[in-house]
C-alpha cells in the first residue's frame, strides 16, 4: 500500500501555513521535494524549512490573493486557512462567516485561470445539514457548512478540480488548541513544577475520533494526487476513544501526578452522535502513527518549550 | 379576508429601497401610516414619499450598518437589498457572493440588541438544495441558496424573529429588469416609433408564475405581522403562464404591431421544473391584482417615461 503521496516535483501553495496542520503540511510536501509556497496572514517568525518560501497575505484581500496566485502559479493548493475555535465563534460570529467563507471563494476564483490546478479545502466533520429545519450547533459549524456548500457548488459551476477533506480531531506536536494539546501543555507545566491546579474535563464519556496530524497530511497529499474533483473525503482514524481513556494515557505518560476535575456527563450523548466518524474515504490510505506516539510527541513538544521544533 | 397588513404605527427599515420591489414597499408601508426608513446604497434622486426617509448605506460596511440600526431602532425590517441578475452573476460571481450573503448577516447581527424586531428577508424560488450532489444552476442561485441557509441558521442560533419570503417572478410598474419589464419597454419604444426590431423570446413554452409586486408587498406586510420566526413562505400567484401567453397579452394591449423572434424550446422543461410554484404559504393572503392590470400598468409606466411615477 502506498504510504506517501508521489506528487511530481511541482509547486504547492499552502494557506494557513503558520497553523498547526499548516506547519506539518509545509514540512511534508517540502520533504517530497516539492516547492512549497506557505501563505501566512501576518509576518512573524516562522520555521526555516528547505523548499518552503513564505508569503504574507490576508485572504480577505481579494486583489492580493489574485496577485499571489499569479506569482506562484501553483500546481496544487491546500487551503488550510481559516478560524476554528467554537467558543470564539460564539463571541464573534461575523468574524467566522467572514474568514471561513468568502476568502475560500476568493482563492478559488483566482485559480480559475489555472484549470489544471488541483485544490484541496480542509473542512471539518462538525458540519450540519443545510436543509430545513436548520439546526447549527454553533457559529463555527455554520461557517464551515456554508464553506462546504460554497466550495462544492463552485467546483460544479466552474469545472475546477476541487476536493474537500473532512478530518476528525487532529492531534500531534505543534501549536494546536485542541483537547490533547491543552492537556499536554498542562502536564508539561506540572512537570516543571508550575502550579496549575486540576485539569478540567467537561465529560469523561464523550467519545471522539483522534487522528495524528501527520497521518492526515499524508492523506491530503494522496487526495491532491488521486482525488476525484467534487469529492468529499472523510479523514479519520476510524477509532473512537473517550476523553477518560485519552486522559488516562496522558497521565500514565506524565512524569508527575496530574489531577483531573471531571465535569458532568450530561452533554456526552450529543457529542457522541456528532463525532461518530465513518472511517476513511481515501483509497490506499490508512493511519500508521499509533495513538501513544502522538501523545508522547505532544508531551515532548510542550516539554521542550512548545514551538522550538515539530 | 384581511387584505392589508395592520401593523401598528411603528418604524420599518427597508433595504434596497430604490429597487423595483423596494419602491413599492416604501409606498405601501408609508400608506399604512408607518415610519419608513428606506436604505439605499448610493445617494441619488429618489421619489419623495410622505412618511419615507432615506438613508445612504453600503450594507457591505459593517460598522455603518450597526450605526444605522442603532439610529433607526426599527420594529420591522424588510431586507430587499442585494443583486438579482443571473447573467451578471456569471460575469462577476464573487460580487454576488459578497453582496447577497455577508451584508445580510451584518444586518441580522446589528439587530441582535433589538430582540423584538421582526425581520423578513426576500429570497427567491431560484434556490437549489445545498446537499450532495451540489448542482447550482448559476452563481446567483448559489448566492441566494447560501443566503437562505445562513439566514435560517442565524435565526436558530440567536433566537431572532427572522422569516424568509420566496417570491415567484414579480411584475408590475417600476424599474424591474424581468421579462415583462423588458417586453413592456420594448412595446412602449415601438409605440413611440423608435426602431427596435423584433423582441427575442428564448422559448415560447417556458412556464412561469408571475405575481404583481404590489400583491407580494402586501404579503410581506402580513408575514412581518403574523409570520412564524424561522418560517419560509412561498409567495406566488399559484398560476403558471407560458411566455407565449404573456407575450400575446402584451401584444394585444400594444397600440402598434410588435414582432417577436421566438427561440428554440429546448430548455423549457428545465425552466418548468424550476418555476413550478407551490402556491401561497401566507395564511389569509391571496393575490388580488389581475394579470391584465399588471400588464396595463407596466405599459403605462414605460409609456410615461419609466420612472416618473409608480
Q: Per the principal axes of the C-alpha atoms, what is the gross shape of chain A?
A: globular
How much strand content do the residues of chain A show? 15-25%
Quick one: CATH class of the domain at 10-167 in chain A? Answer: Alpha Beta
Residue-averaged pLDDT of chain A? 90
Total number of beta strands of chain A: 12
Runs of chain A in which pLDDT lies below 50 for 5 or more consecutive residues are 268-279
Class inferred from helices and paired strands of chain A: alpha/beta
Name the assembly state.
homodimer
Biggest chain pair contact, residues each?
A-B, 34 and 34 residues
Helix content of chain A: 40-55%
What summary fits the major beta sheet of chain A? Answer: 7 strands, parallel
Question: Would you list the SSEs of chain A in sequence order as H and E?
Answer: EHEEHEHHHEHEEHEEHEEHEHH
CATH topology of the domain at 10-167 in chain A: Rossmann fold
Rg of chain A, Cα atoms, Å: 19 Å
Fourth-level CATH superfamily of the domain at 10-167 in chain A = NAD(P)-binding Rossmann-like Domain
> How are the strands ordered across the major sheet of chain A?
3-2-1-4-5-6-10
Protein name (chains A, B): UDP-2-acetamido-2,6-dideoxy-hexulose 4-reductase
Pfam families (chains A, B): Epimerase
Family (chains A, B): Belongs to the NAD(P)-dependent epimerase/dehydratase family.
Domain NAD-dependent epimerase/dehydratase (chains A, B): 12-235
Task: Give structural notes.
Two copies of one chain form a homodimer. With 310 residues, chain A is of the alpha/beta class. Chain A has a domain at 10-167: Rossmann fold, CATH 3.40.50. Chain A is 40% helix and 17% strand. The first copy, chain A, contains eleven helices and twelve strands. Chain A has helices at 20-31, 62-72, 86-91, 93-100, 102-110, 139-158, 179-191, 213-226, 243-253, 268-275, 291-303, and strands at 11-15, 35-40, 52-56, 76-79, 118-122, 161-167, 169-171, 199-201, 207-212, 232-235, 240-242, 260-262. A seven-stranded parallel beta sheet of chain A has the order 3-2-1-4-5-6-10, sandwiched between helices. In chain A, strand 5 (118-122), helix 6 (139-158) and strand 6 form a beta-alpha-beta unit. In chain A, helix 7 (179-191) packs across helix 11. The radius of gyration of chain A is 19 Å and the shape is globular. Chain A starts with 10 loop residues before the first strand and ends in a 7-residue tail after the last helix. The interface between A and B is medium-sized, with 34 and 34 residues. Chains A, B: This is UDP-2-acetamido-2,6-dideoxy-hexulose 4-reductase. Chains A, B: Pfam families: Epimerase. Chains A, B: Residues 12-235 form the NAD-dependent epimerase/dehydratase domain. Chains A, B: Belongs to the NAD(P)-dependent epimerase/dehydratase family. Chains A, B: InterPro entries: Epimerase_deHydtase (IPR001509), NAD(P)-bd_dom_sf (IPR036291).
Amino acid at each position: 500500500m502506498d504510504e506517501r503521496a508521489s506528487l511530481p516535483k511541482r509547486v504547492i501553495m499552502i494557506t494557513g501555513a503558520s497553523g498547526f496542520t499548516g506547519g506539518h503540511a509545509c514540512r511534508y510536501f517540502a520533504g517530497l521535494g516539492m516547492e512549497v509556497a506557505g501563505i501566512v496572514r501576518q509576518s512573524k517568525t516562522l520555521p526555516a524549512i528547505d523548499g518552503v518560501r513564505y508569503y504574507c497575505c490576508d485572504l480577505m484581500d481579494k486583489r492580493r490573493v489574485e496577485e499571489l496566485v499569479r506569482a506562484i502559479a501553483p500546481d496544487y493548493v491546500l487551503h488550510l486557512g481559516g478560524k476554528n475555535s467554537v467558543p470564539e465563534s460564539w463571541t464573534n460570529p461575523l468574524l467566522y462567516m467572514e474568514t471561513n467563507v468568502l476568502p475560500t471563494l476568493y482563492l478559488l476564483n483566482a485559480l480559475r485561470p489555472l484549470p489544471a490546478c488541483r485544490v484541496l479545502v480542509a473542512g471539518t466533520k462538525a458540519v450540519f445539514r443545510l436543509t430545513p429545519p436548520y439546526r447549527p450547533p454553533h457559529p463555527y459549524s455554520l461557517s464551515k457548512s456554508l464553506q462546504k456548500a460554497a466550495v462544492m457548488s463552485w467546483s460544479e459551476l466552474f469545472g475546477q478540480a476541487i476536493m474537500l477533506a473532512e478530518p476528525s480531531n487532529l492531534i500531534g506536536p505543534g501549536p494546536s488548541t485542541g483537547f490533547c494539546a491543552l492537556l499536554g501543555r498542562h502536564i508539561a507545566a506540572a512537570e516543571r513544577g508550575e502550579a496549575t491546579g486540576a485539569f478540567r474535563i467537561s465529560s469523561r464519556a464523550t467519545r471522539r475520533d483522534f487522528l495524528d496530524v501527520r497521518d492526515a497530511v499524508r492523506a491530503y497529499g494522496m487526495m491532491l494526487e488521486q482525488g476525484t474533483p467534487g469529492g468529499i473525503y472523510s479523514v479519520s482514524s476510524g477509532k473512537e476513544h473517550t476523553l477518560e481513556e485519552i486522559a488516562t494515557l496522558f497521565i500514565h505518560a506524565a512524569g508527575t501526578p496530574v489531577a483531573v476535575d471531571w465535569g458532568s456527563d450530561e452533554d456526552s450523548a450529543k457529542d457522541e452522535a456528532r463525532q461518530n466518524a465513518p472511517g476513511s474515504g481515501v483509497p490506499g490510505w490508512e493511519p500508521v502513527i499509533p495513538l501513544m506516539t502522538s501523545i508522547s510527541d505532544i508531551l515532548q513538544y510542550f516539554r521542550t518549550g512548545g514551538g522550538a521544533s515539530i
